[in-house]
Structures are given as structure tokens and as C-alpha cells.
Design brief:
two-stranded parallel sheet; elongated; cell membrane; transmembrane; MFS_Efflux_Transporters; transmembrane helix; MFS_dom
Length: 736
Amino acid sequence: MSKPSTSSSTSLLVFILTLGVFGILNTEMGVVGILPLIAETFQVSISDAGWTVSVFALVVAFSGPILPLLFSGMNRKAVMLLSLGIFIISNIISMVTTSFAVLLAARAIPAFFHPVYVSMAFTVAASSVSKKDAPKAVAKVFIGVSAGMVLGVPVSSFIASETSFSMAMLFFTVINAVVFLATLFFVPSMPVKERLSYGSQLKVLKKAITWHSLIAVTFINGAVFGLFSFLSDYLKNITGFSFKTISIALFVYGVANIIGNVIAGKLLSKAAAKTVKAIPFALTAGYVLFFALGEQGAAMLLIILGLGILAGMASNNNQYMLTNAAPEAPDFANGLFLTSTNLGTAVGTALCGLFISSMGTRYVVIGTLLFLLVGTIFVFLRYRSSVKLPVMVRIVPIFLLLSAFTTGNGFAQYEEKPVPPLETRIAPELLGTYNNLPPLDLTKHGPDKLRNDFTGLVGSDGLPKDQAVTVYNTIIPGKNSGEKIRLRIYKPIGLEKNAPGIYWIHGGGFLFGVPEQDEAQSLRWAKEVGAVVVAVDYRLAPEHPYPAPLEDCYAGLVWFSQQAEAVGVDKHRIAVAGASAGGNLTAAVALMARDLDGPPLAFQMPLYPMIEDRFITPASREYFGNKVWNNTDNLYAWRAYLGNLAGTDAVSPYMAPARATDLSGLPPAYSCVGTLDPFRDDTLNYMARLAQAGVPVEFHLYPGAYHAFEVLAPGTAYSQQAADEYVRVLKTTLNK
């Protein structure tokens, strides 16, 4: 093969290799951004969907040095065509299958050929030019790696969100097919002229510099991708970026990776040792800034740009360290590079996930810095490798990495245990309603349609009516000058004085809803409990985030208490109740009334309340399908209500009542929740803590019930049981 790097044939060859690597890496990493869609499409949990990433990475990690070694003596064009063909077929299978098991198999099989193609791409690119220019040629191929691993995520996510999972798989297929044809027609035959025996290639493992390089690459890549795996989550929960801004940030990071590849290619050809040693320190400084300025949006975009450039440079450095350590076995060395990077990615993600589950999203950086520290140590040991490395020193770091992954100290503690399919757990009489519900996807469509649906109820002639109950609206002043709050009042005809009162706060994730959505329930409570029901029409997020909704609800409660005699209510027999987000506001106004010496509440009824913003329980992280409120909708709603404070230590008990440390002195409470509700564990915990604080508590857990089941399936006996229980509890408590 001709050596001059300026020839058009060499440039075309390197371009085809770059595009091929992009297609291969895009297939591997592109699914990261569409895991919720995979879970929805194949009806599995998010943790199960994550196996589409983990299976691929693990196969690459363990086949990385083996497959390139086995194929090292074969015609490289033929091997690359074989690899691309397998990727095309596997992506087509992924596109059409309806079986999750088949999908996993279609992910695992091409993963065996990932290291074959990529390692040969590096080798061919380097051998197509002079030794001095080899880092520059490899840097161009690395552009494909960076584009596939980083840009592939937002691109595939966009395609899938606008069309479907199958269309994202089609995108992968088309890229690989184009490269297959380009390789077939424009890449010359590349027989291996000097075949190395397997034994001679394996001898590189006896060199200390190989092991130092292998360990350094594993830990540095673990640091970089350990953080990148949770970058979207960090930007949502800590920085407070919207989904659109996160996509932009990921795009910036990807472009920065490519810039870093180009810069590293030039620096490595001039001052390789200095470049390799400097990058870990630069990354450390970048990650410290990332941690310190995590809540500063503009600063974070600049930090992400810088970290992206450094991550791209680190990738080139990692490949250089291993191939430079074993120049006599380039294919095998590149295979080792791919193994170490994938192993680093898997275990780095596990360790960072452990810090998130133990300490919170913000502390993902600790895992990153620990990995980077170990990687830096071995970078410097690499350049001091003049003696044979003792066997135990070679084995122990790799053993520790494998142990961390296989014993479950990483993913097993962060990911939830597998659960049976959702349909098999829903109560039979609720299943039909669930299957007929339309998709609920706030992250894709926002709350506007639901808002319009609920707003259309206001003033509607189609609302339920009861001749025994008078219904009217009144407008009261809000907390601040000029603010007005609508209250909808339900008063039984002929009600005697000193009746009980019920202050109702509707649900809707703080995003949508009106009092009229619960008209039938309010009428029933007024008639059967014999109470005046006052329902508040509070302001909604994100236009009016915290504290606006809570201020409206508290102002309405204060008015109700002050005007109790005028509306025929005993102010000492007022209960506050609400569901979902209304349950949050119910618990919050109860806390405020206690703390501010406000209205003397007789009872509180936060039904399946949305009271915990940190997603720290199994139920809060489990995906309960796209037809009822789930964890993705929940995250969207918390971000709308609390902005960039959600999930941070700055959240107060009035924002998320689960944060309250003192629950004593609160009114007696009743709550219920279904076992398939994302608020299941949060509700259980809160009610248990109320009981521990000496508050009288009654609680009901409904097996097989999803969020707001009694509202979505009101005609079932299951839902009627819940509705009857609400009446019983209120009637018993308020009429003592």
C-alpha cells in the first residue's frame, strides 16, 4: 500500500474507515438516548432496557483482544466486509423484531465483530501513512469514534422521538450499508503480507509497559464515560436544563470530542509523552469545575465544551498508549485498547451509579475523580516501565475491576431488580381500562393538550349535577397584590350551621387541572359527608413554579377558615385533602398551618401524594408504562415546579414534604396508593414517619393498582371501594 498521506486514494480510504467506525459506534451507543422508548416498545423496565447497552459493551470488552487476534492473518478488506454485513443484518432484525430476547441477541452478535472492524480500521489508517503521520491518520478515524459514541445519542434520540424505535434502527442500518458498498467498490484488497503467529503477538502481555497502558486506559476511559453516562441526568437534576437544552449540550460535547481528536492527532505527532501526561491533570481540573459550578447554566455549557475537547484528546491518547506499547502486534494492541475502554466504560458507569444511588446525582463526580486518579498513576508508571511487571501487580487491578462489576457493587445497587411485565401485575379489573388509555408523554408533547382538556370543563354544561348540592364560584385575593384565586364551593342544601368542611386540592403534576375535574367526587362528599367542600383553582407550573401554587392553596385555606361561620362550617372541623400533586400541596399546607399557627386543621388526606423529588426509592425509578403517570413524567413535573432546585439540598419541606424532619403536631392522616404507582414507596415512608411522630394514621395499599386508578377506572368495583373508603374516612373523622 502506498505511504504518502497526501494521495487521494489514502484520503478516500481513511474517510471510508472513519464513516465505518461511525456506523459501528453509532450502533453501539445510539440506543443510550432511547432506553425509555425501548422499555415502552418491548414492555420491559428501564433497567431491563439498559441491557441493550450493557450486553453490547460486555461482549466487546471480553472479545476485544481475542477476535482481532484470530482475524489478524486474514485479508482485511474481506474481514471488514464480513463485520459490516453482520451489523447490517443485526440492525434489520432489531428493526422488525417484537421480542426483547431477540433484540438482545441482535445486539450481542455484532458486538463480537465491533473490535474486529475498529481495530483493523486503526491499523489500516496508521499503516497507510508514514510513521510520523500515523497519529494524524488515526485521529481522523477517531472522529468516527467520537461522532458515533456522542453525536449518535442525540441523533438517534431525535429520530426515535419523532418517528419510532424501528426508524432509529433503520438509521443505523443505512449508515452501515453505505459503508459496506463503499468498502466493496473503493477499498483495495488488503492481504496481510507479514503474518505474525498468535504466540508472538501474545508476548506483548509480558511487557510492563503494556499492562501499565492497559490499566491506565481502563481507568481514564472509566472516568470519562462514567460521568458521560449520567451527564443528561446531571444536567436535568443539578443544572436545571430543559430537554432541548440538554440535547444542545450533548451536541456541543460531541463536536468538542471531534475537535479534541484533531488536536490530539497533531500533538501526539510532535510531543506524545507530554500530551499523554498532561491530559489527566486537565481533566481533573475540568471535573472539579463541573462539580463546583454545576448549577450555573452558562458556565456549564463552557465547561462541557472544554471537557468534550479533553475527552476527545484522552481517547486518542489511550489508543496511542497501547499501540505504542506493542507496535509489533498492532491488531492485537488495538483489540486490547477496545477491551480496556469498554471495560472502563462499564465499570466506570457502575461506580458512578453507586455514588448517585448513595449520595445523589451531584456526587457522580467523585467516582469520576477516583478513576482518574488511578489512571493518572498508571500513566506515569507507563513512562517509567523499564522492568518486567510482577504478575500480581498486573492481575490485581483488572481483578478488582471485574469484581466490582460482576459482584453487583455497581449496577446491581443502582439498577432495580428485574420485575415481571407490567400487564401481569395490574389487577385484572383495572387492566382493560389501562389497555384503552392513550399514551401520556409529557416529555414529548408537554402539558398543553391536557391543560386544554381540563380547562374546557370550566363552565361546561356537561358537568355532573346533584339537586341536593348548591355549587358556585367565588374569587378571593391572593397573597400578593393583584393576585386572584378562584374557589369552587359545594354546599349541601339545608345544611345546618357548624358543619364540617373539606378543602380539596386537585392533582395534575402541578402542570394541569381544575376543580371541575373532580366535580362528581366533590358533589358526593358534600352530600354524603354533610360537608361544605371548597376546591381551589391554583396557578400552575412552569409559568408559575413554586411557591405560587402553594401560596394560592394556603391563601384559600386561610380564607376558608376565616369565612367558616359565613359558609356554615365549624373551623375546627376542616380537613384538607388532595391527590397526587394535590397530595403534595395537602401535606405542605398542613405543615405550613402547623408552623405558622394557621388554620386549626382537623384532618389531612394526601392521596398517593407526589412528595419526594429525589427519586431515591425503587418505585420512583421503575417505569410503569406510558399510559399512566410514570417516572419520566414525574421528573418533567418536578423540574417544572422546582426548576434547578429539584433533587438538591436546597429543597424545603414545603416544596417536597418528604424532606420534613419533624412531623409531630400534624393533624391525623389518611392515605392510599397502588402497588404500581411511582409514589408507592414515598407514600409508605411518609405515612410510617407520621405514625412514628405520634400522628394517628390510616393507610390502604391497593394491590395491582396504578396511579390515580379510581379516577381513570371509576366504574370498577376496585375503584368504587377506594371512593367509598374516602367517604367513610371523612365522615367518621369529621363527624365525631
